[in-house]
Amino acid sequence: MTQPTLIRREHSALDIALSLAAVGVPVLPLRADKGPFGNCPDCVANACGGRTNMKTPGPCACPWPCHGWAAATTDPNVVASPQWAAAWRRTRAIGYHPGGAGVTVVDLDNPTAIDWARKSLPPTTTVGTTRGEHWIYRGAVRSVNGVREGVDIKSTMSYARWLGPGTGNMTDVPAVVDELVKGKPSARPVPRVVAVPAPAGGGQCPHRSPVYLERGIAMAEQRISTATSGVHAAVYRTFLAVLSAHGRCGCLTESHIGRLFTAAQARGESARHCTDAWANASAALGM
Fold it and tell me: How many CA atoms lie within 13 A of 82 on its CB side?
């Protein structure tokens, strides 16, 4: 992540967001409670009734995800779009997707956690928070909360508040952080094959048409392969769309899922990131 120059306080949230996006930091507006705004009238101020946890991406008819880290973008046309204009005027904080910026945030929430970090972690870029500090390292890892008391790891499929460029030179993610992350199991194991009950009524699933299903998988592969930016978000959105259409009727097979993972990995996604994206999409749909 290239650090932007320190932005003067009188600059608007939109100015700051555009400055961050210009140097490759995916941004999104946050509400006073630090949760993401909805990006469409159906989801603004949780008007959708919370059909998803507002801190996680969720299904929506919007052109882009409404909730959570997957809404973060470096596209200036999206950042400055009418859909986000009201949110930037009312935002109390700017969020960003650390993993999308190629960094990992070690979120230290109290003095005890800070003392542990000073004894256990190498120095890096540090930013003060309301209750503690963010230590920012170069490189992305899986996001896990509660790796230690008062310590969260925020990187892929997560968002953090932008609190300024910080002080100190950024260094690589240390081995101790990798060990903490690996020591915590994923929140939701991904099913290798989607197995769900047959549709009510016992009728034949309409998606079992080879042409219909093949067209859907091919379009999903193309959507991932042609993503020009925000590959993490594009992969998640595509997985969500495929599961929305085919996940409840037993159409998807190991082969179909493998094709999607292959397309994502060809764009630089790791197998672990693919697994997490699939698990998050499944959970968002209640599968």
Answer: 2
Q: Which amino acid is at 207?
A: H
Calculate ∠ Cα 256-217-241, nearest 5°: 105
CA 235 to chain centroid: 10
Burial of 30: CB neighbours in 10 Å, binned 0-12, 13-18, 19+: buried
Predicted local distance difference test score (pLDDT) of residue 3: 47
Interatomic CA distance for residues 121 and 131, integer angstroms = 19
For the stretch 133-151, pLDDT in tens is 999 999 998 888 889 999 9
Bridge partners of residue 104, in order along the sequence: 137
Between CA 184 and CA 178 the distance in angstroms is 10
Name the token pair of 186. 């994923």
67-109 pLDDT, tens per residue?
567 678 888 988 888 877 878 888 888 999 898 899 999 999 9
Structure tokens at 94: 């700017």
DSSP state of 128: E
111, HSE (Cβ side, Cα atoms, 13 Å): 0
Q: How far is CA 40 from CA 63, 85, 92, 234, 238, in A?
A: 9, 11, 19, 19, 19
